[in-house]
Amino acid sequence: MATATAGPGFDLPSHVGCPSGEGVDPPFRNALNLPQYRCNASFFGDIKSPEHPLAVWTGYFVIVGLGISFGIFTVLLVALEQYLFSTVMTSEYFNTAGRSVKTGLSASVIVSQWTWSATLLQSSNVAYLYGVSGPFWYAAGASCQVILFGMLAVLVKLRAPTSHTFLEIIQARWGRVAHTVFLLFALTTSIIVTSMLQLGGSSVVNALTGVNLDVASALIPIGVILYTLAGGLRATFVASYFNTAIIMLFLVTFSFIVFTSHSDIGSPDRMWELLTRASRDVPVANNQNGSYLTFWSRDGVFFGLINLVGNFSTVFIDQSYWQSAIAATPSASWKGFLLGGLCWFAIPFTLATSLGLSSVALSLPITVTEAARGLVPPAAAGHFLGSVGSAAVLVMTFLAVTSSGASEQIAVSSIIAYDVYRTHINPRCSGPQVIFVSRVVILTFGLLMGGLGIALNHLNISLDYLYRLMGVLIGSAVFPVAFSITWGRASGLGAISGALGGLVLGLCSWLGYAATFDGGINLKNTGNTDVMLAGNLMSILSSGIICTLVSFVRPDDCDWSSTQSIPLIEDDPNAFLPFERAEALERAFKRVAGFGVVLTAIIVVLWPLLALPAGVFSRSYFAFYAILSIVWGVVAASVMIILPVWESRHSILVVLTLGMYARRLEAVEAAKVSYHESDAGSGAADEEGGYEVGYADGFAAARAAAAANGGGGVSGDEQLPPDLPIGVGAAGPYAMEDHRPLEPPEPSYRTSF
């Protein structure tokens, strides 16, 4: 043991005069001998005498007070929106948000619902376990699915524009048996996702505040139920924007504190030095030279593959993502997923590169058990900012749980309302009946969320275990569900055979491999990385092979007429596409397919291949890597916070001015209409087909209209709002490029957020 020196540094002993650390893994992990952790066998204390950085009332304040307050705020905002924009809460609006969500909000919602508690917690755990490759593989293995889902989002608008769930598409194509099979997969997916949300959320609340695990699990869903019951999908989307904005702000704050300002690290150079020391003290098994600073990590790559398979399942089989595609406008459907996937990448990548790696660099006394429960971020944040940091992670985790939980509540309610109630119980149901059933399911499933968390906590199933297992259980449904909207020759027999056959083969591979280890089939062996990888790969790959082969032998001949005629319950004009819009989406599909494949190849293949020649990262290479993570986080945060507000700026002004801004814009709209209607007498077309005169006459009409509405008039130099388009061209004010006239678009200030 080295001799102690005067201050913290590399030559200090870990623990001088401490009792034996036997049974602790790793024993007394405090290589820098930070005085606050002297003789600590764990960061949060043992089970019998836990140590909590925050008072217990803080936990109750967040999960009850903040949850209910946020729920009331969201309900009031949605109610004000409905009042000002005269929105009627039909069943279509409740479950699809009017199919009018714009790109920025769509992307923000996707980021929010894909940010689970595991995103914040498990990503730092893999940094703690595997080093720099862990955050990358978590981010890469879970972002490409969202990017690729953009292709399905476009096809939903083209081939099933009136659908409410992806199960309706399966029913229309393959019939009742296939519908029932994939209904079970969809519900299983929502249950698994909800279970992980509850496990991560309750663990953090318990570790930081001391609130009982069971109580935390039961109380977390309360606020979510409130606003989801009242406002449906629209309320969930509004809440998701605020959740995403807050999480992004905390994310950027933590990365700057770790890499630029805190005295314990404060720079990429210092982080590199500390990680180099940690690699000597506690080397990583199966990493090059035992280093935390390399992509040559066998277990890191295996985790990346598990992550890749499992997250294809929880995107493609999760109704909440299909619901986001259905709720978006046609052009926003694919843009939202591309943008959302790229911005979401920053959350696990930036957060875990800062908090996850710093927990290793500073040799914080976090045990493997604590890390598996997702407690690396709260430990690191607590070290850097004390109780403020702990509170920030508590709020981030709570927002992630509530946002994703709300999405799952709406997803399950839509499945039960449309695919159980309307399909099997009351085919002639009315809109109010669908809303009633949806609300009953939201309440029931919300309460069930708490029960799931309590059960899993008592079964000692960790967040890490469940996260790795999900691909084994639901991965076999990925290819059949994707084929339901992309491949016209895919057959119902092939889809059912692939889904069930892949599930059986995946379970057999998982359990069979685990049985070969000492002790046979137990929690430890079934959670082994190699065992989980075998089960995950067998489940998804065998399913794809079976489904494809059976479909070639017994193909269907689908012209998509059945999916295009899925019935609505109530009128929704946004569900139908004009011919010109459909043509544009056909072109968009080709673009998004190209973008998706190229971006996925860059992120999943090219990036790690370029990092491998670096071996163990040099000081300068790691500095570049750390700066990249910060820049990505800042750009993503800026886009997610600013873009939704900018796109809906006029609607927001209408709400903030309680409708006065709308009356002013209506006057401007009247000016434009008058201007275009009077072009024959007031203006002459130029060579381009535009108009040189008549603008003053239009604004005269605007001033008259404003006076009639009791407004203050419109000044001659006032500019038209940029998102209220002024049409040009000889074919009319709303002509397409090929001069086929379309209906005038609804002014943006009359559409909600």
TrEMBL record:
Which terms does the record give in the GO molecular function aspect?
A: urea transmembrane transporter activity
Q: Which CDD domains match?
A: SLC5sbd_DUR3
Q: Is Membrane tagged as a keyword?
A: yes
Instruction: Give the family this protein belongs to, as stated in its UniProt record.
Output: Belongs to the sodium:solute symporter (SSF) (TC 2.A.21) family.
Q: Which UniProt keywords apply?
A: Membrane, Transmembrane, Transmembrane helix, Transport
Q: What is the lineage of its organism?
A: Eukaryota, Rhodophyta, Bangiophyceae, Bangiales, Bangiaceae
Note the superkingdom of the native organism: Eukaryota
InterPro entries assigned:
DUR, Na/Glc_symporter_sf, Na/solute_symporter
Q: Name one GO cellular component term.
A: plasma membrane
In its keyword annotation, does this UniProt entry include Transmembrane? yes
- The regions listed as transmembrane in this protein's record are 57-80, 136-156, 177-199, 211-229, 241-262, 300-317, 337-360, 380-401, 436-459, 465-485, 492-513, 533-553, 592-610, 622-646
Which protein, by its recorded name, is this?
Urea active transporter 3.1
Which PROSITE patterns would you find in this protein's record? NA_SOLUT_SYMP_3
Which Gene3D superfamilies does UniProt cross-reference here?
Answer: Sodium/glucose cotransporter
Q: Where does the UniProt annotation locate this protein?
A: Membrane
Topology in membrane = Multi-pass membrane protein
State the PANTHER family in the record.
PTHR46154, UREA ACTIVE TRANSPORTER (PTHR46154:SF4)
Q: Where is this region: Disordered?
A: 732-753
